[in-house]
Each structure stands twice: as C-alpha cells, then as structure tokens.
Amino acid sequence: MYLREFSKPPAKIISNGKAAFGTYNDITQKLDIKGMRAPYAGLPVPVFISKLRIKSRLDYIFSTDKVIGLVEFYDFKIFGLAEIIFWNMQTGRKYVYHTFTATRKRIIPKNTSQGICASYKKSRYIKVSWGRNHKHMAMKFNVKGDNVRPGAKGYIFSPMNSKMHTDLLFVCPSPGQSRCSATWFTTMKMQGNIFIDDEKLDSSAGLAAMRINRTYFRTHTRFTLAWGIGKIQSKNIIFQLKNSNLDAADPDKYNENLITVDGDTTALPSVLMTHPFGIKKDWIIQDTESMIDLTFTPVSDNHRILNVIAIRTDYNVIYGNYNGVILTKDGEKLVLKNFPGIINKSTLRI
Fold first, then answer.
1. Strands 94-101 and 292-308: what pairing?
2. What 3 state SS string does 91-148 have?
3. Phi and psi of 40, rounded to 5°?
4. Is the CB of residue 98 less than 8 Å from the CB of residue 168?
5. Residues in contact with 302: Cβ distance below 8 Å, sequence separation at least 6, in sequence order
6. Calpha distance 79→102 (Å, rounded)
7. 191 and 213 in contact (C-beta within 8 Å)?
8. Strands (E), 162-310
9. Distances (CA, A) of 93 to 6, 21, 90, 105, 163
10. Could you tell me which residues are beta bridge partners of residue 231?
11. Under 8 Å CB-to-CB from 41, ≥6 apart: which residues?
12. Is the pTM of this model over 0.90?
C-alpha cells in the first residue's frame, strides 16, 4: 500500500538556491520560497525579478452541523482579492461576498508564528488570524448586504491545544526542481457564531482547516482543490485532494494530499478528478493505489469570472457531498456517505 512518511521540517525552505522538498509534520518559522536559482527557463535572473512570479493564496474551510463555507485570499502583489462564501446545508442557500484589497507590502503574511490576513473595507471586513504564542486561530467577518443578498457577520475561534490540531508542511517541485510550491496546512476544532441580518443562523462547534500556499506561477495556471470536512460516527475527519498544472513531475512522491482522522494524518497519493457529464454533475475522484474511490455530487455552484488589470480568473466554488471510500495508512477503511465538502476549480491567467 502507498506510504509517504512525515519528517521533521528544515530550518528554511530555500537554502543556497535550492528547496528542501518533502512532506513534514510541523512548519518552518516562515513560509518563504524566494531565492530559487534560475526558476524560469534556466536563466539566472535577479531574485527581485523572479519573485514577482510568486503568488500566494489562503483558504480557510469551516463546517458545523448547519453551515459549510470557504474564505479565500489571493495575493497578486499589485492587488488582492478576498471572498467568503458559505451555505446553509439544511436549505442549500448560499451567501457570497467578495472584495478587492488595495496594494500593501504583504497581504498574506509569511510568518507562521503569528499573522493577520484581512480585508479592512467597512462593507467587506474579512479577517483570518493566528497566534501560536496565544495558542489560537480565528476567523471573523462582517459584510454588508445589498439588493440581492442580506448582511452577515460571524466569528470562529479555534484553540491550538485540541487533539485535532495539526501543522503540516508540503514542499513540492512545481513542476521541476528549479521551481517550488510550499503549503502550510493546519486542521482544528472550532466554535462559531454566524448571523444573517442580526438573526442567528448557527452557533455550534465544528471543524476548520487553513491552507496557505506560495508558488512560482505560470502564465496560465489551472488547479482543482477538493476538501471534505465533517464527522463519520464520532470521528472528526478532514481531507484535501489537489490537481494542478503546477504539480510535481512525480506527483506520488510530492503532493499535498492528505486525510486527518482525529488528528492522525495520512499522506495520500495523487488523484485524478473528472466530471464526465459536466461540472455540475457527479465528479469521479480516484487514485492508482486503491486508497481513494470517491464520487462528489454538487448541491450548489458559485461561478465567477474576474478581469482586473492584466489578470483574469475563472473559478467555480461548489458545495456538495462525497460518497465512497478512503483508506488510511493503517488500512482503516473510511466509508463516506453524504459527507459534506467543497471543490474549487480555477483558471488563472497572468
């Protein structure tokens, strides 16, 4: 059976122009990938030029018995994009709010010990923060409504001392060893309150996960991220599966696919995600190691195309349910039935 071990992370991701590729069960102090030697076409261009192609992204996924949602921040250097989308899983209704963030030194911090990633616009206040000294992570939002959507606000708090808390680091060639992609992935329990027009929508415990990624982007980048988050009986389960044209040339050796069961993490092999009958119909997600065999059935899709300056993004954020099987490293067979999750399928042109 496929097995990829977690090891101790290096002091720095990049040293002497080379990346420390691997899968790590902890994180470095900084999620920094600048300084790769000749990352484009083998040309030894200055670092200040090559680092302009480094793009950053933060995803914060959360789920309770009633609500599932996703907060996203994109850092394009010259501007940023922030969005929160969540669904009432009992009614299927979605709530979507997005905004652009003005240029500043760094929208998504590199420091993994403490940091704040936020949109401070009064009508679209969205913030994700972490502080390892205070042993907590948090997400807060307060967004005003308009003629097509109500106002909403919420606060989610996650302690770092629970058994479900994990810190994982994935450093992968992207796709060759002259470029790299680094991802910090952390899972956690959460307690939250969400209001719609000052009426409480939900106030309960649940699960959350945060992903921060830095990658040397191509001119055209395509990726699909699939998350599952919820419970099977009394077990807390979070998984992430990813496809991208930036994936390593040997994706089974280097990838960021994983499943966490009550804080115990299994590194998963690469997968193939297809939707043969259309993006709004059933997705098939499988690997070649007989560890992953899933069907994802969409419930609600949010499609958006954005053209800003020289950047075009076309993405779908889809809430739905998984059915199928995932195996852990111990051979435990996890059977998923109507297990909630989100898929993000995006195309970015720079």
1. unpaired
2. CCCEEEEEEEECCCCCCCCCECCEEEEEEEECCEEEEEEEECCCCEEEEEEEECCCCC
3. -125, 115
4. no
5. 85, 94, 96, 316, 317, 318
6. 5
7. no
8. 166-173, 180-196, 199-216, 220-232, 235-244, 258-261, 264-267, 272-274, 283-286, 292-308
9. 39, 42, 8, 37, 32
10. 236
11. none
12. yes
Largest CA distance in the chain: 57
Kindly provide the b/e burial profile for residues 18-53, where b requires at least 16 CB atoms within 10 angstroms of the residue's own CB.
Answer: ebbbbbbeebbeebbbbbbeebeeeeeeeeeebbeb
The amino acid at residue 308 is V
Structural tokens at position 304: 């958006």
* Unique residue bearing structure tokens 């480094």: 54
CA distances from 127 to 28, 82, 108, 192, 271 (A): 23, 9, 11, 14, 32
CA distances to 34, 315, 335, 344 from 220, in Å: 20, 13, 36, 17
Helical H segments across the chain, by residue range:
47-50
How would you write the pLDDT of the chain (350 residues) with one tens digit per residue? 899 999 999 999 999 989 999 999 999 999 999 888 878 766 666 666 677 788 899 999 999 989 999 999 998 777 788 999 999 999 999 999 999 887 666 689 999 999 999 999 999 999 999 998 778 899 999 999 998 899 999 999 999 888 999 999 999 999 888 889 999 999 999 999 999 998 999 988 999 999 999 998 888 889 999 999 999 989 999 999 999 999 999 999 999 999 999 999 999 999 999 999 999 999 999 999 999 999 999 999 999 888 877 678 899 999 999 999 999 999 999 999 999 999 999 998 87
Pull the structure tokens for residue 95: 């709530």
